[in-house]
Design a protein that fits this description.
By secondary structure, this protein is of the alpha/beta class. A hairpin with a 2-residue loop joins strand 2 and strand 3. The N and C termini lie close together (5 Å). Helix 5 crosses helix 7. It folds into two domains: 111 residues, no CATH class; 150 residues, Nucleotidyltransferase, domain 5, CATH 3.30.420. Strands 1, 2, 3, 4, 5 and 6 form a six-stranded mixed sheet that branches.
Length: 320
């Protein structure tokens, strides 16, 4: 993948920047991200989809805004917090390729950029783009897939079922909110496709849009053991590895128990993804209200996770 490119302007390079650069402690993670993210291809997608009027003040660079959105996601920041931290932290400035004299876009600019991402549904397109790059590099082999869902708490917590500040969130068995349905690669643990539904949506209905013709075999837990899920896998000519659910009044056969254990030993790899969301990104509660906004946020988290995972997978390799 390409390195991010910036035209060096001697007028923008100050003595203060030079002194700070020598004394600034390195941020290994952000330096790694600058190396593995395909900035030029992302720029092409953003510039194609986001049309600016050209009126008023000059707009900030789209890649700068995209980098700010990534920082916001990786470090669990608000729009205002992102603006402040980029002003305050040298490593964030360096990642965004801003020197001490450059103006940092304010929180309202970041909010406007988020709305443009939501409007054009760009995160799902960028996720596909990054996965295509990974396939070309041989990082994403797609020998097998794992599908699972994670509960995302709504931005508001109603006191009763009739009191809903977010009308599109629903009560599920884990609470009030949404479900993020993930199709992940078995070997690399990269997210291939993602879908967002209300929390009361059955898991098998969340399969809509996350299975494709490249999915060769798919592992799922007992929550997907319904005729609809088996039919979807059959329709996509995908090998069915759905764990068997115990029927009422009947015990599982010895074969099904052994089969479930074998599937579970591999299917558990998807929990790594949700572990990173919860423990590293601190993402278990939506920041916004409404399905469209929450969907865009979950897709942003998925893309940010993939970048982090790619950094780990290619560490020490000649990636570019």
């Amino acid at each position: 993948m390409e390195r991010s490119t910036r035209r060096e302007n001697p007028m923008n390079s100050t003595l203060i920047d030079a002194i700070i650069e020598e004394r600034r402690p390195p941020n290994k993670f952000l330096s790694e991200m600058k190396m593995v993210i395909p900035w030029q291809k992302i720029r092409e997608v953003l510039e194609k989809e986001i049309v600016r009027s050209g009126r008023g003040r000059p707009s900030y660079d789209l890649i700068l805004m995209f980098k700010m959105l990534l920082v916001k996601t990786w470090y669990n920041l608000s729009d205002e917090g992102t603006e402040f931290q980029i002003r305050d932290r040298l490593s964030f400035k360096e990642f965004c390729e801003l020197n001490m004299m450059d103006k940092v876009p304010d929180a309202s600019c970041l909010e406007d950029f988020r709305h443009m991402i939501e409007k054009h549904e760009l995160m799902s397109k960028l996720l596909d783009l990054v996965n295509e790059q990974c396939e070309e590099k041989g990082l994403l082999l797609r020998k097998g897939n794992i599908v699972d869902a994670s509960f995302i708490e709504a931005n508001c917590t109603p006191s009763k079922k009739t009191d809903r500040s977010d009308p599109e969130a629903q009560f599920g068995h884990k609470g009030f909110g949404y479900s993020a349905h993930v199709n992940a690669d078995e070997d690399s643990k990269l997210i291939i496709k993602i879908n967002t539904t209300a929390a009361n949506t059955p898991d098998y209905k969340g399969l809509e849009g996350i299975l494709d013709e490249k999915t060769k075999e798919c592992m799922m837990d007992r929550g997907y053991d319904y005729p609809e899920a088996h039919q979807k896998l059959e329709k996509t000519e995908c090998v069915d590895f759905i764990m068997k659910k115990k029927k009422k009044g009947k015990e599982l056969s010895l074969f099904d128990k052994i089969r479930n254990k074998a599937i579970s030993s591999v299917r558990c790899r998807v929990e790594h993804i949700f572990g990173v969301w919860d423990n590293t990104f601190k993402f278990f509660r939506a920041s916004y209200r409404g399905l469209k906004k929450v969907k865009a946020q979950i897709e942003t988290v998925a893309l940010a996770y993939n970048f982090k995972r790619i950094g780990f997978l290619v560490r020490g390799l000649a990636w570019n």
